Amino acid sequence: MAVGSRKPFVRKLFDNSDVIRIREGVGLTQKQFWSPLGISQSGGSRYERGYYIPKPVRILLNLLYVRHVDIEALNEDDLKIVHYLRDQHPELYASLAKMIKRKG
């Protein structure tokens, strides 16, 4: 990888069929599923019917429904630390990520 280039924060971003499968898997209505992301039921319905899902929304979906991160508890400083580690100390970032995965 070239110096200065960044690995994607989320390796697998969702497509529309993934979102439907996840929502149905957790047993939530469209309103319950999309509301924590600040998206209306009708907006979520459009995404599920095939409209383009913006990358920030896909990242939030990954954090909330796959990684089970309490996104309300995150603050700007936490995110700055993550970005700093990933960009300035990629080996440490990778090592920490492996440790977290092992703890499951």
Description:
There is one protein chain. With 104 residues, the protein is mostly helical. About 5% of the residues have low confidence. The two termini are 28 Å apart. The chain is elongated and about 40 Å long. It contains 6 helices and no strands. It folds into 2 domains: 59 residues, lambda repressor-like DNA-binding domains (434 Repressor (Amino-terminal Domain)); 31 residues, no CATH class. Helix 5 packs across helix 6.
Q: Return the structural class.
A: mainly alpha
* Cα-atom radius of gyration: 16 Å
The low-pLDDT segments are 7-11
Individual helix count = 6
The CATH architecture name of the largest domain reads Orthogonal Bundle
**Average pLDDT, to the nearest integer?**
84
In what range is the share of β-strand residues?
Answer: under 5%
User: Would you count the extended β strands for me?
Assistant: 0
Overall number of structural domains: 2
CATH class wording of the largest domain: Mainly Alpha
Order of helices and strands: HHHHHH
Q: What is the CATH H-level superfamily of the largest domain?
A: lambda repressor-like DNA-binding domains
Protein name: Transcriptional regulator
Organism: Microvirgula aerodenitrificans
GO molecular function: DNA binding
Domain RsaL-like HTH: 21-63
Descriptors for this entry?
single chain; mainly alpha; 434 Repressor (Amino-terminal Domain)
Task: Reconstruct the topology from this structure.
Layout: H1 16-26, H2 30-34, H3 41-48, H4 55-66, H5 76-88, H6 90-103
